[in-house]
Amino acid sequence: MIIKDILFFFAIILLYGVGILFAQVPPSSFNNNAQQKRVGQRLFQPEDLFRVWQIGASKWSPDGRRSAIEVLRPGRTIDRSVPTGEIRVLDAETRSLRIISSPSSAYIGFFNPIWSPDSRHLAFLSVDENAVVQPWIWTVGTKTARPLTGFDVKIGLLDNPIAWAGNNQIAIVAWEKEAEKSGPLYFRITRGQKIAEGYKRAAEMKAPTVSVLESQGIAKSDTPNALLKIVDIRSGKQRTLAQGGIHRLSVSEDGRFISFLRESPGIPNQPVSSYFAFETVDEAYDAVNWGTSRNVIDAQTGNLMDSSSMTANPSTVRTPRAAIPAPKPGARLLSAAPGGDAALFITNDSEGSKLWIVGGKGQSLTESFAVWEANEWVREIKLGAAELISYKSSDGKHLTAWLLLPPNHTPGTKIPIVTIVYPGQTFGQTAPGSFSLLQPNFEHPQLFAALGYGVLLPSMPEDESRSLQQLPNGVLPAIDAIVERGIADSNRIAVLGQSDGGFAVLGLLTQTNRFRSAIASAGFSNLVSLYGTFYGQHRYGDAGHPQSGAVLRMLQLEKGYGGMGGAPWAFSSRYRESSAILQADKVMTPLMLVHGDLDFVPIQQSEEFFTALYRQDKRAVFVRYQGEWHTIANRPNVLDLWQRFSIWLAETTAPRTH
Q1: Which of 60, 73, 405, 620 has the most C-beta neighbours closer than 10 Å?
Q2: Region 459-467: what's the mean pLDDT?
Q3: Strand locations in 548-634, DSSP E?
Q4: How many CB atoms lie within 10 A of CB 12?
Q5: Is pLDDT at 7 greater than 90 in this prediction?
Q6: How far apart, in whole angstroms, are the C-alpha atoms of residue 249 and residue 165?
Q7: pLDDT tens by residue, 17-65
Q8: How far apart are CA 125 and CA 140, in angstroms?
Q9: Rounded to whole angstroms, how far apart are CA atoms 476 and 195?
Q10: Whole-angstrom Cα distance, residue 290 to residue 283?
Q11: Burial of 200: CB neighbours in 10 Å, binned 0-12, 13-18, 19+
C-alpha cells in the first residue's frame, strides 16, 4: 500500500467537502439551498467538512496534575498537516480547561506541547503565514505564554525540533539566517513558493533561472542549514552546540546529554547504493529523511560524548498501568497521566465530539467528566444505514464488505452504487471509520450517500505481486452480492479510488467492463515512468532536496509498497505487468482523473492515462488543481470538485433509456 510504506508524509488522507442538496434517485447535482436544521432533518453537505473541530496531541505533565492539549480549529483547508490548533491546559484537579496560546490572527496555529521535567513550564510552537515557526514558553501560574524571539524552528517529518534539557533550559533546532528553507510544513503553507519565484524571475528576464542537479554529490559542506542551540528560559542566554542537517532531537533523562541524527554527508553527497544496504526499507526511509550519523553531545559544552551516555536510568522506567475504564462505549483513549490516576478519552458520535477526563486528583477512575464539547451540528444530519455484507472472493476466501445506504433509501428500491477501492484494505465486524461524519476525507462516503448513491467498500486482501489480474478478486463478488440481494442497480455501478486506490481503479478498468463510471484521484498507471519522476513538491526544493524524493521513490518501488524487487531495467516484466497504461486499449469505462500538480505521485501519471484514452477517442475528463498535493484539500478546490463529482456521476450512471 502506497501510504503505509512512506514515512515522508504527514497524515495524508485528511480532507473535506462542499455545499450539497440531496435528491432521490436518480442522483441530483449539488446546490447551496438551505436545509432544515432540526435534528436528523438535513443531509450532509461538503461545507460541513470545514466545520469539524478535532482534538490533536495531548501531553501530561510529569507530575500528572495537568495536560496540554491541541484543539484543532476548522480552517481554510482540510489538510491537518498544517497546524490550526490552540494550546489548552487542563487542570486534572479542578477539571478546568483554558487557552494559553496567543489569540492573535498573525498565527495559523500552535502545536507540539512538551513539559519541563519539573512540570512548571510548557514549551510549544507556533506557525504563521510565512511558515516561520516560533517557540513559546508558558509557566504555571501565569495567564498566557511568551514567545522566544529570534528563532525560526526547523520542522521536518516526525522530527522533534525542541526538547527540555533540565528544568530551565530548552534545546532548539532552528534554521540559520541564510539557510534555504524547505520541508513538509514549509511546502504546505507556501504552496510551491520556490516554483512561483522561479517563474517570476523567468518573466523578468533579468537573471538566469537555472537549477542543476548532480548524480554524484558535490554540494558544499558549508551550505547554511540548521543550528542546535541551548536556551536558558530565565535569562534568554543561548549557546550554539552543533550545526548542519540535524534531526530527531532527544535529551537524556538527567538533561546532561543531547542526541540527534545528522545528515553526514546525506543527500545528494551520499551514494544512493548506501540506502539500499539497510536490512529493512523502513530503516532506509529513515536514513533518507533524517541521516545516518548518530551524535551524542554534552548539553552544556557541545562536546561529543559516547553513545552510552544516553542510556535511560533504570529507576525511571515505568511499569505498565492497569486498564482505565472508558467513560462510555466507543470512547477512545487519548492519553493517560504518568501515575495512571487520570486519563483523557475522546468520543465522536451522532451527538458530536466530547473530551472526557477520567479520574484525576482525589477522583475515582470510575468517575468521568466532559471538559470540552464540539461538533454539535452533526445532530442535524440525517444518515443512511450501514450494512455488513458477507461474501466470497473469486478464489473462495470469506470476506466482508460494508454498504452505506442513502439517507432516504426505500427498501426494495434498486440504487446506483459508488464502489470505493483500496488494495490491501479488508473489513471486519465493525463499520468503517470513514463512515463517520467527523472523519476528514475529501471523497467522503457520506457525501456520495447524500447524493443518492449506495457506497460499497469491498475487502481487497493484499497481493504482493501487484498483478492487475488480481484486482477484481475481492471487488466484483461484493458487487454481485448486493445485486443478488436486490439492493444495487447492476447497470449503474461506479468505481472510485484515491492514491493506491487510484492505481486499483485504473487497473480494474483494464480487467473488466462492469463499471458504468470511474473516478481515479492521485493514481499511478506506469511504474516505469513513476520510478524516474520527481516528487511534485520536491522538484524545486520546496519540501526537500529533489534527490531525496527520487531516492524515496526508488526504495518504495524496489523494496517497499511496489514490491518490484529491483529497478525497471532489471525487472522490466514486473513493471509492465503492474502498469495499467500498457493495457489502456481495454478500457471502455468513462473515466474522471483528479490530480494535484504538486503531488508526490506525479501528475504526469494521470497525464499519461488521459493521453492514452484521448488517443483512442474514449471518454475521459482530467481535473487538475494547482498548488494541491496528494489530496485535494483547499476549500475552493474541494467545493469545485464535489460539483464535478455530482455532475459526472449523474451523467455517466444515468438510468439506461432502453
Answers
A1: 60
A2: 86
A3: 591-596, 620-625
A4: 20
A5: no
A6: 11
A7: 322 222 233 333 444 344 445 677 899 999 999 999 999 999 999 999 9
A8: 17
A9: 43
A10: 10
A11: exposed
Phi-psi region at 37: left, alpha or beta (left = phi > 0; alpha = psi -120 to 50): alpha
Beta strands at 415-420 and 454-457: parallel, antiparallel or unpaired: parallel
Q: Which residues contact 588 (CB under 8 A, 6 or more apart)?
A: 509, 513, 618
Radius of gyration of the chain (CA): 26
Per-residue pLDDT band at 224 (split at 50, 70, 90): confident
Q: For residue 34, what is the enclosing H or E element? A: none
Q: Which helix (H) or strand (E) holds 373?
A: strand 368-374
Q: Containing H/E element for 185?
A: helix 184-190
Query: Cell triple for residue 31?
Result: 446546490
Q: What is the pLDDT of residues 117-141, one digit of tens each?
A: 999 999 999 999 999 999 999 999 9
**Which positions ≥6 away from 329 have C-beta within 8 Å?**
none
Judge contact between 2 and 499, C-beta under 8 A.
yes
Q: What is the largest CA-CA distance in the chain?
A: 83
Residues 19, 328: Cα–Cα separation, whole Å: 33
Is 24:655 a contact under the CB 8 Å cutoff? no
Which of 300, 456, 299, 467 minimizes the C-alpha distance to 386?
A: 456
Residue 294 zone, left/alpha/beta (φ > 0; ψ -120 to 50; rest): beta
Question: What are 99's strand-pairing partners?
Answer: 88
Q: Does the pLDDT value for residue 289 go beyond 50?
A: yes
Q: Can you tell me the mean pLDDT for 83-87?
A: 94
Helix (H) or strand (E) holding 561: none
CB 589 within 8 A of CB 618: no
d(CA 45, CA 30): 9
C-alpha cell at 334: 487519548
Measuring CA to CA, which residue among 307, 279, 309, 272 is closest to residue 293?
Answer: 307
What's at 265, amino acid-wise?
A: P
Question: Whole-number mean pLDDT of the chain?
Answer: 90
Least confident of 168-172, 221-225, 275-279: 221-225
At what angle are helices 281-290 and 546-558 packed, to 10 degrees?
180
**pLDDT above 70 (res 222):** no
Q: What is the mean pLDDT of residues 226-242?
A: 96
The pLDDT assigned to 265 comes to 87
pLDDT digits (tens, 9 = 90+) for 551-578: 999 999 999 989 999 999 999 999 999 9
Cell 533540565 appears where? 166
Nearest-angstrom CA–CA distance, 623 and 443:
14
Q: What angle do CA 322, 58, 74 make, to 5 degrees?
A: 135
Q: Which are the contacts of 399, defined by CB distance < 8 A and separation ≥ 6?
A: 390, 391, 392, 393, 426, 427, 458, 459, 461, 474, 477, 478
169 strand-pairing partners? 232
- Of 618, 388, 443, 604, the residue nearest 513 (C-alpha): 618
- For residue 480, give the amino acid letter: D
The helix or strand, by DSSP H or E, that contains position 493, with its residue range, turns out to be strand 488-498
**Among candidates 9, 597, 466, which has minimal Cα distance to 605?**
597
The kind and range of the H/E element at 309 are none
Q: In DSSP terms, which residues pair with 402 in a beta bridge?
A: 388, 457
CA pair distance 570, 359, nearest whole angstrom:
60
Single-letter amino acid code for the residue at 517: S
Residues whose CB is less than 8 angstroms from the CB of residue 50 and which lie 6 or more positions away in sequence, other chains included: 16, 17, 74, 75, 76, 78, 635
Q: What is the CATH number of domain 380-526+579-652?
A: 3.40.50.1820
Per-domain residue ranges for the chain? Answer: 332-375, 380-526+579-652
For residue 271, the SS3 value is coil
